[in-house]
Specification:
InterPro entries: 6-blade_b-propeller_TolB-like (IPR011042), Glc/Sorbosone_DH (IPR012938), Quinoprot_gluc/sorb_DH_b-prop (IPR011041), Secre_tail (IPR026444). This protein is mostly beta strands. The chain folds into two domains: 358 residues, TolB, C-terminal domain (Neuraminidase); 76 residues, Immunoglobulin-like, CATH 2.60.40.1220. The two termini are 18 Å apart.
C-alpha cells in the first residue's frame, strides 16, 4: 500500500513541478577552493588559494597528493591574494602545459606562469614554472584571478583595477595600464626574450595603448568563462557599493569598454567620466546589494545534457548569499534557486568562490567556507511536454525492455529516459517502432520517456520499471 501511495503522489506531481535546483555534495576535505578546471578528462582540478592544486576523481574522492604545490616563497596569500587561477593549454594532452595565476611573494604582483605535467605521472606536475607575464599591483585587492584559453587558442587574463575603492588611479580607463582590463596573449609564439606575443588583432597593437589589452573598463572580473557551445564570453564583474553585473558578448569582438569607473552596472558612478566619443558595453544582467548581496561569482552557461531544463541558462552565485542565480540567455532575466542551508549553525554561509564545469558541461560550485565542492542539479521533471504525436509504450511497466509506437512519427526518433531526479539515465536513437529499448540496468520505479522525432515533434509518457 505504501508503494502505491508513493507512486500516486509522484504521478500527480509530474505535471505541476517547476525546475528545482539542488546542490548535492560532491567532494569534501578541501581548503579555500577558488577555482575548478578540467584537463579534457574525467578529473576535476581544484585550486586552493593557499597554493595547492588538488585532483578530484570522477566519484568525488580527492587524490591524496597535490597536483601542484606553490609555497610562501613563491606566492603571497590572504585576503584576495594567493593562487587564484588555472588554465590547461588547448594541446595539454600532447604538450602537458598548464598555466596558473598567482600573487607573487614579496611585492604582491600578479604572475601568470606556465608549468608542465610530469611525463611519467598524469596526477603530478613538475615543480619548476616559467613566468610569462608579471603585472605590478598597487593594492592587495581587485587583483582578478581567472585565466582561460579562448576558442581562438589565446590566453585571456582577467585583471581587476588594482583597488582600492573606486579605482582612484582611474586605471580601468587608462589604455596604457594593464589593470582593469581583459588581456589576451599568444603563449605559443615568443617575442624575442618575452615568452609570449600579442595577437595582431588586439585593439592596441600598432596603436597607442598596451598591446596585451583586449577589453577595458573592468572593475574586478573575478570570474569569466567561454561558452562551450558557441564560444561567447561571459564576464561577471564585481561591483563597487551597489550593483553587480554580468556581461555577455561574442568572443570575437575586440576593444570593448565595459564602462568602469564611469559606470557601475548601468548606473553612472563618476559624473563627467564618460567620453561621448566612446561606445560603452553595458551588462546584460545586473542585481543590487539589497538582501545582503556583495560580490558576484561568475559561472557558465549550462551546456551539459543530463538536465534538460538547465539549458539556455547562465549560472552564477554571490559570495554573500546562499543561493544560485540563473540568467535566461534568451531574455536576460534573472531567477534564483531557493536559499540553501549549510547544515552548520556555526558556519551558516557557503561563501561561493567559483563555479566549474567538467568535460561534459555539467556544473559544480565551490564553497570556500566549508571546503566543499557541490554538483548543480535539477531535481524536477519539468521537460517540454507539448505533444505533436502520440506515444504508446509496451509493455508498461517493463522488467527488461520496451517498445514505443508513435503515431505519424518521422523516424529516426531520439528517446531519453529521465529518472525522478531529472537525470537522463538512458539515451538512444531508434529507427522504427520495432526497436527494443532496454531497461534491465535501471532500478525499479517511475520514469519519464521523452521522444523527439526527426521533425522536432516531441511527446512524453510515464514508464514503470519493475524488477
Amino acid at each position: 500500500m505504501k508503494t502505491k501511495i508513493t507512486l500516486l503522489l509522484f504521478a500527480l506531481s509530474v505535471s505541476s513541478v517547476a525546475q528545482t535546483i539542488a546542490i548535492p555534495e560532491f567532494a569534501t576535505g578541501l581548503s579555500g577552493p577558488v577555482a575548478i578546471a578540467h584537463a579534457g578528462d574525467s578529473r576535476l582540478f581544484v585550486v586552493q588559494q593557499s597554493g595547492a592544486i588538488r585532483i578530484l576523481n570522477a566519484d568525488g574522492t580527492v587524490k591524496p597528493n597535490n597536483f601542484l604545490t606553490l609555497t610562501t616563497s613563491t606566492i603571497s596569500t590572504g585576503g584576495e591574494r594567493g593562487l587564484l587561477g588555472l588554465a590547461f593549454h588547448p594541446e595539454y594532452a600532447t604538450n602537458g602545459y598548464f598555466f596558473v595565476n598567482y600573487t607573487r611573494s614579496g611585492d604582491g604582483a600578479t604572475v601568470v606562469a606556465r608549468y608542465s605535467v610530469d611525463p611519467n605521472n598524469p596526477d603530478l606536475a613538475l615543480t619548476t614554472g616559467t613566468p610569462f607575464i608579471t603585472i605590478a599591483q598597487p593594492f592587495s585587492n581587485h587583483n582578478g584571478g581567472t585565466i582561460k584559453f579562448g576558442p581562438d587558442g589565446y590566453l585571456y587574463i582577467g585583471m581587476g583595477d588594482g583597488g582600492s575603492g573606486g579605482d582612484p588611479g582611474n586605471r580601468a580607463q587608462n589604455i596604457n595600464d594593464n589593470l582593469g582590463k581583459m588581456l589576451r596573449i599568444d603563449v605559443d609564439t615568443p617575442n624575442g626574450n618575452i615568452p609570449y606575443s600579442n595577437p595582431a588583432d588586439n585593439p592596441f597593437v600598432n596603436a597607442d595603448g598596451n598591446d596585451e589589452i583586449w577589453a577595458t573598463g573592468l572593475r574586478n572580473p573575478w570570474k569569466f568563462s567561454f561558452d562551450r557551445g558557441n564560444g561567447d564570453l561571459w564576464i561577471a564583474d564585481v561591483g563597487q557599493n551597489a550593483i553587480e553585473e554580468i556581461n555577455h558578448v561574442t568572443s570575437t569582438t575586440a576593444g570593448l569598454n565595459y564602462g568602469w569607473k564611469c559606470y557601475e552596472g548601468n548606473a553612472v558612478y563618476s559624473p563627467g567620466c564618460a567620453n561621448p566619443n566612446v561606445t560603452y558595453t553595458f551588462p546584460v544582467a545586473t542585481y543590487s546589494h539589497s538582501g545582503g548581496a556583495c560580490s558576484v561569482t561568475g559561472g557558465y552557461r549550462y551546456t551539459g545534457t543530463t538536465y534538460p531544463n538547465m539549458q539556455d541558462k547562465y549560472f552564477f552565485a554571490d559570495l554573500c548569499l546562499n543561493r544560485i542565480g540563473m540568467v535566461n540567455v534568451n531574455t536576460n532575466a534573472i531567477t534564483y534557486s531557493a536559499n540553501f542551508s549549510t547544515g552548520n549553525p556555526n558556519n551558516p554561509g557557503f561563501s561561493w568562490t567559483s563555479l566549474g564545469e567538467d568535460m561534459n558541461g555539467e556544473l559544480y560550485i565551490a564553497s570556500a567556507a566549508l571546503g566543499k565542492i557541490y554538483r548543480i542539479t535539477d531535481t524536477s521533471l519539468a521537460v517540454d511536454q507539448f505533444a505533436t504525436t502520440t506515444m504508446e509504450i509496451k509493455p508498461n511497466p517493463s522488467d527488461s525492455e520496451f517498445f514505443v509506437k508513435i503515431a505519424s512519427a518521422n523516424y529516426p526518433v531520439h528517446i531519453k529516459i529521465v529518472d525522478a531526479s531529472g537525470k537522463v539515465v538512458h539515451d538512444q536513437q531508434i529507427e522504427s517502432e520495432f526497436t527494443a529499448i532496454p531497461t534491465g540496468p535501471l532500478a525499479g520505479g517511475i520514469y519519464l520517456v521523452n521522444a523527439t522525432d526527426n521533425r522536432g515533434g516531441k511527446t512524453t509518457s510515464k514508464l514503470g520499471i519493475t524488477h
